[in-house]
Write a structure and sequence with these properties.
It is found in: Secreted. The chain is mainly β and 234 residues long. The chain has a domain of 147 residues: Gamma Fibrinogen, Chain A, domain 1 (Alpha-Beta Complex), CATH 3.90.215. The protein contains four helices and twelve strands; from the N terminus they run αβββαββαβββββαββ.
Length: 234
């Protein structure tokens, strides 16, 4: 599904209104000074309580809000419940999930892009970027919406691969206790919470299994990272 830039309307702040801090906190990491170091900060997206996040000020473009980090041999368990995924878990200084609800609130306040980063066994990083990224509401199942792809390798999130797991774009989020995938079983019970079809081309939320075809075909990526920031295409 190719998304277009959202136009401002009722409940959709403009870029200028989004830059106004709420209660002294920025709406996301893009509002930090470019000279700010990477580290722990407090943000407050529209309609959200303040959230502690890791702001990445080193990756190209600076000002990225980290919403997921995982390492192959992580100590955290990714087979969490719907509610745990909703509100987030882990440590923002290490492996963590920001929270599906906060992903929704963050990406509803404007038009965002996303960069998925994985590191392979040879310690080489690879990325896939989508110029539009949005997570819809809980009432609709937190479905994933992605725009145009750029990056290395093939597009395994919006492309359809029937011999692998189908597609991820437009899929609802599934957890061990809330199965919303298109498979006869429950994909999340084998891996962790994710936007599954039948079951996956890509999985980043799993313990000892980080999969990105072409880079880590056996699920042996050493780490993953998901970064978001306001898009620059609108």
């Amino acid at each position: 599904m190719l998304l277009h830039c959202a136009s401002a309307g009722p409940g959709m702040p403009t870029a200028s209104s989004r830059s106004v801090p709420v209660a002294g906190f920025p709406a996301d990491c893009s509002h930090l000074r470019k000279t700010s170091p990477s580290g722990v900060y407090v943000i407050q997206p529209a309609r959200s309580p303040p959230r502690v996040v890791w702001c990445d000020m080193d990756t190209e473009g600076k000002g990225w809000t980290v919403v997921q980090r995982n390492s192959h041999d992580t100590e955290i368990a990714w087979k969490q419940s719907w509610t745990t995924y909703k509100y987030g878990f882990g440590n923002v200084q290490g492996d963590h999930w920001l929270g599906t609800e906060y992903l929704h609130l963050l990406t509803q306040q404007g038009t965002y892009k996303v960069r998925f980063v994985v590191r392979d066994k040879a310690n080489v990083t690879h990325y896939a970027e989508y110029d539009i990224f949005r997570v819809e509401s809980e009432s609709s199942g937190y479905p994933l919406r992605l725009g145009r792809y750029s990056g290395e390798g093939d597009d395994y999130l919006t492309g359809y691969y029937p011999k692998k797991g189908g597609i991820h774009d437009n899929m609802k989020f599934s957890t061990v206790d809330k199965d919303q995938d298109q498979y006869s079983g429950n994909c999340a019970s084998s891996y962790g919470g994710w936007w599954y079809d039948r079951c996956q081309n890509v999985v980043l939320n799993a313990k000892k299994y980080i999969l990105w075809p072409g880079f880590c075909d056996k699920g042996d990526c050493t780490s993953s990272l998901i970064l978001v920031k306001p898009t620059d295409v609108c």
